[in-house]
Amino acid sequence: MSGPYTLISFDLDGTLVDTAGEIAEAANRTLAEFGVPRQDEAFVRGFIGAGTRQMMLRLMAHLLLRDPALAGRLRAERVLERLEVHYGQTVGTSARVYAGAHEALAGLRQAGLRLACVTNKEHRFALRVLQATGLAERLDVVIGGDTLARHKPDPLPLRQVMAQFGAEPHQTAHVGDSSIDVEAARAAGVQAWAVPWGYNAGQPIEAAGPHRIFHSLPEVAAHVLAPPRVAQAA
Ligand SMILES: O=C(O)COP(=O)(O)O
Ligand SMILES: [Mg+2]
């Protein structure tokens, strides 16, 4: 049985904050320097999930498949260097907090729960998004994709946060938008909760097999804070 919960971990991109616009903008400013035309945000969005560098490498791989002639221009190392510069300029500038995120986190914190952000975004960029949106102060810890030796879907980041706050797996849930989150949560033995409004490489999140799907973040808080149901005597 799971609960009562003491620790809730949240994914960042596609779960707490819509960051696809500013990630796509950084990718497009980078591509422009290499003479590659702008790509739609919806196309770039499908590559978000394993960190910003991975997003760019996956995007490049698709562009090269489409047009192998680009191989002479798109050198991975140089592209990633330029992405670092451009994302440094766009990160946190147009990120939008999903409806109800502030209220949900505030309610959970007020009830005494520990709150973590476990993201695959590089730590320095994750902090910029969280600070720009005012979410940083609502969280007890932020683990980025480059904070530890391994990142989601490996269970290490979730295990690290659980150890930090003395939470057992049955007292912990991780809320995310992608199969990477579901896999990490299941590998850590915690509740794998999902939201359907994120990225997940364009696939419906149901297919990832989460324990539960929530249709708003306040719904997550309400579920966590609901009084335990007393079993009816027969
Ligand atoms: O930045 C990414 O690619 C993924 O970040 P997330 O783990 O917060 O979804
Ligand atoms: Mg995500």
Automatic annotation (TrEMBL):
Q: Which GO terms describe its biological process?
A: DNA repair; glycolate biosynthetic process; reductive pentose-phosphate cycle
**MF terms (GO), sorted A to Z:** metal ion binding; phosphoglycolate phosphatase activity
Q: In which pathway does it act?
A: Organic acid metabolism; glycolate biosynthesis; glycolate from 2-phosphoglycolate: step 1/1
Q: Which of this chain's residues are annotated to bind Mg(2+)?
A: D11, D13, D177
Q: Any idea what this protein is called?
A: Phosphoglycolate phosphatase
Stated EC number for the protein is: 3.1.3.18
Per its record, the protein catalyses:
2-phosphoglycolate + H2O = glycolate + phosphate
